[in-house]
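Journal club side-thread
Mid-discussion, someone asked how the predicted structure for our own chain would compare to the paper's figures. Pasting it here so we can look after the session.
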Amino acid sequence: MAYKISEDCAACGTCIDECAVGAISEGDIYMIDPDLCVECGSCAAVCPMGAISKED
């Protein structure tokens, strides 16, 4: 399952720099494209808000 970003996202940009496949797009709350996500977990590891988790 791909990762997702919750409403706890502060749009700080930390995760975008970590995504090797460019699956994260900017916005008020960032979004992860599930078709591009390779489930590496790099984004979740660096998120200071803890807003990124695996989809159920």
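Post-session note: The chain has one domain: 3-54.
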